[in-house]
Amino acid sequence: MRIATYNINGVKARLPRLLEWLEETQPDIACLQEVKSQDEGFPIAEFERAGYGAIWHGQKSFNGVAILAKGAQPIETQRTLPGDPLDEHARYLEADILGIRVASIYLPNGNPQPGPKFDYKLAWMKRLYARAAELLAAEIPAVLAGDYNVIPHAHDIWAPAAMLDDALRQPESIAAYRALLGQGWTDALATHYPQGGVWTFWDFQAGAWQRDHGFRIDHLLLSPAVADRLTHCGVDKDHRGREKASDHAPTWVELAD
């Protein structure tokens, strides 16, 4: 089983690239972020023609998450992250698919920091911590997949000194991410590539793609039962270099049956 996460940066603008990726790689489950579409505008017919069932949580112009399943219909279990009834951002969606609980996560960026956006990021991570603990306590095989907007280690960025003032590299952000791992979740790419040097994002600005100035912010966290099934993981880097592509590359894990 292949489970992937892909910040598509506009599902309508990138639809040809997204459908191309689905056809070429055939993930069983695909978690999308930054859909940037209201619910009624989500291109469900295109995905159904490609053989995928889908659920989505949209928002006009920004945010938005979705989950696709090949030859199956995701069974929604949670829409929005619990813990703040006033938070209307479309950043979390959770479903049961093929015996696994899967969440598509678009964690807040947090810039500029310090400030209210960074405070919101840290509060959101506390809510994610609580939800992740509930899933582990229920012993549900689960994958928390998405754009976490956290660079966990110095070797997860092209230059250790780059972006030290950015919200993605702040000690508080990193500590909150490591607290998640401390519950018992496995960071799949970090496990298979402990030396780092694997990027999932290259900015559109300053020739970042051409110079390979990237970093790793798209993560798949596996519960213990799922981590025991992990066989391979990687990044579909070549898809970042295609015409009118997202600034993220699809990131995936393969699990034994």
- Radius of gyration using CA atoms only: 17 Å
What do we call the CATH homologous superfamily? Endonuclease/exonuclease/phosphatase
Tell the overall outline: globular
Largest sheet: 6 strands, mixed
Mean pLDDT across residues: 97
Number of domains: 1
CATH class membership: Alpha Beta
Output the structural class: alpha+beta
What is the rounded distance between the termini? Answer: 7 Å
Low-confidence runs: none
The SSE string, one letter per element, is EHEHEEEEEHEHEHEEEHEE
Instruction: Give the helix tally.
Output: 6
Helix content: 10-25%
CATH topology: Deoxyribonuclease I, Chain A
DSSP E strands, number: 14
β content, as a range?
Answer: 25-35%
Commentary on this structure:
This protein has about 260 residues and is an alpha+beta fold. The protein has a single domain (about 1-255), classed as Endonuclease/exonuclease/phosphatase (Deoxyribonuclease I, Chain A, 4-Layer Sandwich). Helix content is about 25%, strand content about 25%. It contains six helices and 14 strands. It has helices at about 15-25, 45-50, 115-135, 170-185, 190, 225, and strands at about 1-5, 30-35, 50-55, 65-70, 75-80, 90-95, 100-105, 140-145, 185, 200, 215, 220, 230-235, 250-255. The strands form three sheets. Strands 3-4-2-1-14-13 form a six-stranded mixed beta sheet. The longest helix has 22 residues, at about 115-135. The protein is globular, with a radius of gyration of 17 Å. The N and C termini lie close together (about 5 Å). About 45% of the residues are buried.
